[in-house]
Amino acid sequence: MQEINASEFEKEVLKGGKIVLDFYSTECPPCEALAPKFNALSELYGDKIKFLKIFRQGNRELATELGVSSSPTLLFFDNGNQILDTISGGIKKSEISERLDKMITPEEVQEIKSRIRPVVSDYDVAILGGGPAGLTAGLYLGQAKIKTVLIDPALPGGYMGITHQVSNYPGFEQPQNGYMLAHYMSEQTKHAGIDFKVAVDVTSVDLVKKEIVIDQTETIRAKKIIIGTGTSPNTMNAPGEKEYKGKGISYCATCDAKYYVDKDVTVIGGGNSAVEEALFITKFARKVTMVHQFDALTANQTAIDHLIANDKISVMYSHEPRKFEKREDKMIATLENLKTKELVELEGDGVFVFIGFKANTSVLGDVLPEQDQWGYIKTDEDRKTSLPDIYAIGDIVSKKYRQITTAVADGTIAAMTISKEI
Ligand SMILES: Cc1cc2nc3c(=O)[nH]c(=O)nc-3n(C[C@H](O)[C@H](O)[C@H](O)COP(=O)(O)OP(=O)(O)OC[C@H]3O[C@@H](n4cnc5c(N)ncnc54)[C@H](O)[C@@H]3O)c2cc1C
User: Is 240 in the pocket of ligand 1 (CB under 6 A)?
Assistant: First the structure.
């Protein structure tokens, strides 16, 4: 693994050879989650493909020239030519190896795969998800000396890790940087003595057999499984959204707002997340235009008061995006005025989308516990689901209030219930 800068790009990348190049940033949780996967793959494929890293903030011009506008972004080169699709954001190990396999011969792929040995490990409890809910369950189970593993495709922390400031988690006089709160919680849980398998691919989950396969090769068997996989941001499914994801359209202000210093930014949404994130983006951007489908914002009054006091933000009410496209460096959002049906174009340098969330159940296999009409998992007061020995905690639970405090409460309840049963 080698780190390069823009002046070495020509010599190291354009002068031939097979290369995968990682544009990373600091204070970027998905970049940190990618690092161990990138290292592991460089050990496997390193004698055939060169693995390079480049610091995006320090090499902005080159990043812009190559169309990189989100971190992390992986680019692939063969003989000086860019090949295959770029990938960015929360990158899976399997997405990278799929591309690496296309860069070498089938015989070389086979030789690499033959070096990977399958592993089976047994635990009392497997926790899926290392957000505040999963970390708290892990803390209690570790302290109760129950053999537990916590599995997460990202680094631990969940949404806490990408929240700029948390001002309502008890115990701190001043607002806390979410990233640091995630770090403290995760270190505390590690010290309690459970195993962490993080930044892995969750290949499959079988809630009936209680088996989880990670990185395609390691099978984890558990007596009980706690589901704390949280939620994912909703997408708009407007033409252009998929195409420009990571290339002008972002879902994480903490990760990407810093690239919009003195720029014009469009924010889609009008709830708490949208307003709070728009306020954060104004620390960098020159102007923020919020686009909201209703006549009034749906955020709480404190957030709305802050927004009104901030003269960098304006709101287009009763508008909804219909299409996204890029013209030269600018992102153009075509919006429909829901009252007049008129279409207008809004030009900006980047778009951030905050329009609610959906439960992360799609990765939980074919047999799922009972869910509510919105797809959230139903539990009893001990956080037991309708499937035997399967628990659900945190934002994925069918409930009214989704906060860090309610997530840690769920983690506590499930872990204490299990501690009495095992
Ligand atoms: C922008 C924003 C700001 C917020 N601000 C605040 C605030 O100031 N105060 C507050 O109290 N709350 C806040 N919240 C809400 C709070 O962050 C959530 O309620 C809380 O994080 C939920 O915790 P969780 O552990 O249930 O889920 P999450 O935090 O969503 O964590 C879920 C974890 O599961 C992992 N995962 C996903 N799929 C899988 C899989 N297949 N297998 C294993 N793991 C998986 C994810 O990588 C993630 O680490 C905010 C939320 C957002 C989005």
Answer: no
